[in-house]
Amino acid sequence: MSNIKTSVAICGVEMKNPVTTASGTFGSGREYADFVDLNKLGAVTVKGVADKPWNGNNSPRIAEVYGGMLNSVGLQNPGADYFIENDVPFLRQFNTKIIVNICGHSIEEYCRAAERLSEADVDLFELNISCPNVSEGGITFGTVPAMAEKVVKEVKKYCKKPLIVKLTPNVTDITEIARAAVSGGADALSLINTLLGMKIDINKRKPVLYNKVGGFSGPAIKPVAVRMVYQVSKAVDVPIIGMGGICDYKDAIEFIMAGATMVAVGTANFMNPFATAEIVDGIESFMVENGIKDISDIRGIID
Amino acid sequence: MKLVEFAEIIENRPIADKIYLMKITCPKIAALSAAGQFVELYTGLGERILPRPISISEIDAIKGELTLIYQVVGNGTECFSRKNKGDLIKVLGPCGNGFKINNEIKKHIIAGGGIGVPPLVELCKNLEGDVSVFIGAKSSPILAEKFESLGAKVYVASDDGSAGFKGNVVELMDKMKPEGGMIYSCGPKIMLKFVAEWGEKNGIPVQVSMEERMACGIGACVGCAIKIKDSESENGWKHLKVCKDGPVFMGSEVLWNE
User: Fold this and answer.
1) Closest residue, chain A, to B91 (C-alpha)
2) A184: distance to nearest CA of chain B, Å?
3) Which of B49, B216, B258 sits opposite A68 (nearest CB)?
């Protein structure tokens, strides 16, 4: 085990292995500490943080669908001040990097959050311009290339940490948005956010979610995510954090072969609270069994 | 502290129409469980990815057993109903806060409706003094004999009059005028709202066990939000999580008309 190299770096920030969590599925790490030794993870990506507290959407916010789930949480969060006071000190007890997902309704809000969080002891930012559950800040910035470029460019001015930009799959050509984000100054990209979905209760004759539509995640979306990571990795030169339906180490390896530097585990945490740690172990075993010395040796090996 | 255990199913049988009683052995979770908490049960089906929150009806910490009573409402609970004695089932728990029990109170009122009745059994076992139990359902309220065997005074109501009083639990409480220092309630949201109002009118505090669709069950996904009054926030309320901050809240805290 000791002579294999699982560590990866994103914009100079070294992670001991390529496994992190998908924002919004792991709280601030605290919620999973009963199940997972957080020291084991390359990084913890926390739930979206805005400059001020957000209430999120009305319930019901969750609907299970075949092979996945819908959510319309709407980025409920206690705000940057609370996060800095409570969650950062908690996470800093562990030997893992901290990636903060940043959300906003407007360029100004994103910038304020980035400025405030730049003072915090965290490692990387992930700019969420792709949430399907908020009308402004999600769809508007994430689906129009010129807007994506503009918001990234503005946020970069206030950002004292490397900036990952999280992309939505709800576009015609994700490589266009990827290129726009990179030309705006994105240091890395993460993808995919959830696919927009809907479920109807045929007995009540109305949508299950209060918000009618929500983000579709879980194992069912993995092929879409692998395809998009593959396409984006061919289109841009920045590191990619791949996610979308990763449930085990085999899924993780697929994303890495498709071109991802890191992988994020999301909905699988709800299916199996040990998922992240098991994936870390599984990747190591796979490398040993297959004589892979360095995880980067299999990164992006698909032509 | 929450744990995952693969519990052995000791018993799994119907006790009423679409309602099943499952007894499982999960000593570590049972040792930590308290009245009003719930567990997350996994279906084991690849396509049904989320665990189902099921209230704990009875706890036997010495034997390491939990009794769960659930209603078959969809694919997940249907899958549970097909499990056999000896099968293993993945369980996460205990989840949530549970009922608060004040030992200085010697007279208690329990109000349960439909599939909200089961978690009130373990509560009833833990209450000292006189307990009046009001249970209701559309036609056949469950677990009346159970409460009677625990020494409680039991009042039964059914919407169609096929069992006990014809009407709902709150109408029956209005009629019987029970006395107590605390009301504990679990059932449909509309019933909980009326029980909370009844308690307010009669000057008795009410603990309500709430329900909302959830994914993780441990406070991470923020799926199961309900509105709780908050004088410090601009709009007068805040979202709290049923799975972690609840499921038990004070009836007076809940913003009912949302």
Assistant:
1) A272
2) 31
3) B49
Domain extent, residue B253, equals: 211-258
Quick one: B116 and B182 in the same domain? Answer: yes
Subunit contact A60:B213, Cβ cutoff 8 A: yes
Alpha helices in B112-245 (DSSP H): 119-126, 144-149, 169-176, 189-201
Asked if the Cβ–Cβ distance from A34 to B1 is below 8 Å, we say yes
3-state secondary structure A132-188: CCCHHHHHHHHCCHHHHHHHHHHHHHHCCCCEEEECCCCCCCHHHHHHHHHHHCCCE
- Find the CB nearest A270 among B47, B215, B258: B215
Same-domain pairing of B137 and B107 = yes
| Interface ipTM | 0.94
Partners of B213 on chain A (C-beta within 8 Å) are: 59-63, 208
Mean pLDDT value across residues B56-76? 97
For residue A135, what pLDDT is reported?
61
Q: Are B49 and A35 a contacting pair at CB < 8 A?
A: no
To the query of whether residue A11 is one of the catalytic residues in this protein, the response is no
Residue B110's CATH number = 3.40.50.80
pLDDT above 80 for A150: yes
pLDDT in tens, A44-79: 999 999 999 999 999 999 999 999 999 999 999 999
pLDDT band of residue A227 (cuts 50, 70, 90) is: very high
The beta-carbon neighbor of A267 closest among B49, B238, B244 is B49
Average pLDDT over residues A84-94: 97
Inspect the interface and report whether the beta carbons of B47 and A55 lie closer than 8 Å: no
Architecture of domain A8-57+73-199+216-298: Alpha-Beta Barrel (3.20)
Q: Using beta carbons and an 8 Å cutoff, which residues of B are at the interface with A?
A: 1-4, 42, 46-51, 76, 92, 212-216, 218-226, 235, 238-239, 244, 258
3-state SS class at B197:
helix
Report the b/e string of A219-256 with b at 16+ CB within 10 A.
bbbbebbbebbbbbbebbebbbbbbbbbbbbebbbbbb
- Structural domain count of chain B: 3
Supply the pTM of this predicted model: 0.95
Distance CA A237, CA A248 (A): 27
- CB distance from A82 to chain B under 8 Å? no
Q: Is A116 within 8 Å of chain B by CB?
A: no
